[in-house]
Design brief:
By secondary structure, the chain is α+β, with helices and mostly antiparallel strands. The chain contains 4 helices and 4 strands. Strands 2-3-1-4 form a 4-stranded antiparallel sheet.
Length: 94
């Protein structure tokens, strides 16, 4: 499984979250297998999203899609996102 880690700042987390949820159907259509949203403990408008993807090729294509760029603009993302592509390395429990 492939993963995308995205980090960016938003103008208003509540507005961003609403648009992120509305965008779920498009992500799923493009190969998303789900996501987790995290907020910086000291700045709730500093957001990290870990998305699970069925293939790395689809994950990379999604991040380059015009649809995503337009959605991030509409959601109030400020500045370019930091995007990292990851592969699973296993699960560990403490």
């Amino acid at each position: 499984m492939a993963h995308i880690l995205v980090r960016h700042k938003v103008k208003d987390f509540a507005m961003w979250r609403k648009i992120f949820q509305e965008h779920a159907a498009f992500r799923k259509q493009q190969g998303s297998q789900g996501s987790r949203v995290l907020q910086n403990a000291d700045d709730p408008n500093d957001v990290a999203i870990l998305l699970d993807w069925d293939t790395m090729e689809k994950a990379r294509a999604f991040t380059e899609s015009r649809n995503l760029i337009e959605t991030m603009e509409r959601a109030g993302v400020t500045g370019p996102p930091e995007i990292t592509f990851l592969h699973s390395a296993g699960s560990f429990s403490e």
